[in-house]
Amino acid sequence: MQHIDYVIGIDSGGTHYRLKAADLHGTVLGEYVGTPANHHQMSRQEMLDRIDRHVDALLAQFGGSRAEAQALVCGTTGLDSDEEGLMLQALYEGIAGFSCPMRIMNDAELAHYTVTGGEGILVICGTGSIAYGRNSAGRTARAGGWLFTIMGDEGSGAWISRMALRHLGRYFDGAVAQSPLVRLTRGRLDLESRNDLIELSRRMGTQPWFTPQLGQTVDEAAAQGDGTAIEILKTAAHHVFGVVEDLVVALQMDGEDSFKLGLWGSTILRSPVLKRTFLELVHERYPHVEVRYADKQAVDGAVDLALSMCRAGGNCNADGCHR
């Protein structure tokens, strides 16, 4: 069997576990999307078993051997402390058959590199919300990303969904009238009565990672002119902008004439009201900001970083690599 040196990039998110392999020239050899492998939701052994299955499915596409891997980079959700970073680094280095250099990072850091190239601020607003940045002096920081249990993930898809459900509660209280947001939310979740909403709320309380995804529902209601839906989305934009402001302060970037600001996440990118309001706030406060959007997926950024590791380490056999 032909010997193939390759690198692996991984985007370990809350919904999917994406892997991509490329040879040392950057040519894609295979890619695979599997179920999440989140250390907050399963044991170490369960994670290892799931990652093993995903890796095997990827390598089967091109007949790769684990021993031939030259570098692996994984951006993962939920990596929020140095202790978690050390734990996950050890977990990945313990995957059987691999002996290559590995780098495990928060998915916000990976997305930041993918969009900005490594300098500036990236705001992520999908299911959750967080901002990560690196200033011109190389200092890094993050803002937001705190769990919803302490009112974190502000302005995110999960936050918007909870606000829509709170409004539905007011409808069942008799405090607000029937509206597109009420009608669409009830239809989306088949909520006929106060008891139905109570049961859903109890489920959300006992399963903290479960929140109905109502972002598109709120967008649809806003498109129909629902005032509450529009206000929820505008408030979400203010919250997300607040996270950016916090990071600008933390990185002391408010004195810079210009900086890159990347946008990432389906909630902000697919919601016309939220995106428009957010950009209005940004340009009013930071008139010289350079707004950037992703032209590739996070898993592609992980592959790029893995190739950079390979080249910097002198282990790359591709033309032009440092030896």
Structure description:
The protein is α/β, with parallel strands linked by helices and 323 residues long. The chain has a five-stranded mixed β-sheet. Helix 3 crosses helix 11.
What descriptors fit this protein?
five-stranded mixed β-sheet, 10 strands, Nucleotidyltransferase, domain 5, alpha/beta
Q: How many beta-strand runs?
A: 10
The amount of beta strand, in percent, is 15-25%
Query: Spatial order of the strands in the main sheet?
Result: 3-2-1-4-5
The rounded distance between the terminal residues' Cα atoms is 26 Å
Query: What does the main sheet amount to?
Result: 5 strands, mixed
Average pLDDT over all residues: 90
Q: What is the overall silhouette?
A: globular
CATH second-level architecture of the largest domain:
2-Layer Sandwich
Helix and strand arrangement:
Elements: E1 6-12, E2 17-23, E3 28-34, H1 44-59, E4 69-76, H2 82-93, E5 102-106, H3 107-116, E6 120-125, E7 129-134, E8 140-144, H4 157-173, H5 180-189, H6 194-206, H7 215-223, H8 227-250, E9 260-264, H9 266-270, H10 272-285, E10 290-293, H11 298-312
Helix pairs in contact: 3-11, 4-5, 4-8, 5-7, 7-8, 8-10
In short:
The chain is an alpha/beta fold and about 325 residues long.
